[in-house]
Amino acid sequence: MPRPCKCRRVRADPPCKLFKPAGVPGRGLPRVTLGLDEVEALRLADVEGLYHDAAAAEMGVSRATFGRLIEQARRKVATALLHGQALAMEGGPITRVDEREFRCADCGEAWRVPFGVPRPTACPKCGGPRLHRADAGRGAAGGRGGAGHGRCRRRGRGGVGAGVAATGRAGALPVSEPCGSMETGVEEQS
Fold it and tell me: Which pLDDT value is given to residue 136?
């Protein structure tokens, strides 16, 4: 029995879910399905210009797995283009990568860091140690959404926001989707 597929980290969905030849009705058109992990591999290698080892680290897979992903993706895109087929982008064993934004209080420099990477200790521009989260919707109380110190809320002992669940509070960051096969419906276009 083969080992289960390891989830691949994907930054964002493609802006379009389906490409098809112009002037051809989509109903009877054969489809080639490109997984979201394969779309991410194309983005990292061909758009961002990363080497395979750096792109593999970005997706959280081995270099060999990334090589197979990019090879499959290029083959599917070429097949769809050369045979006049529709190219649908959906599914695949993925997990979303969310980012957090930090801002330096000394020079005002802002930069993004993915979740899972430790909090930066110094500004990359000026080296200053005074950093704070600058994500949209964050409160002025140290990134706690205006809930004060936060100790009571986490322990459930009352205080401001004690009854508010961590994911239900106003201004909460989006939670990444769980790992698994993402099945998204792609509507037929005619």
Answer: 53
> What CATH architecture does domain 98-159 belong to?
Single Sheet (2.20)
Q: Which of 4-8, 46-50, 74-78 has the lowest mean pLDDT?
A: 4-8
Q: Is residue 84 within 8 Å of residue 21, measured between CB atoms?
A: yes
Per-residue tokens: 190: 């005619």
pLDDT in tens, 133-177: 876 545 444 444 444 444 444 444 444 444 444 444 444 334 444
Fold of the domain built from segment(s) 8-96 = Arc Repressor Mutant, subunit A (1.10.10)
Rg of the chain over CA atoms, in angstroms? 21
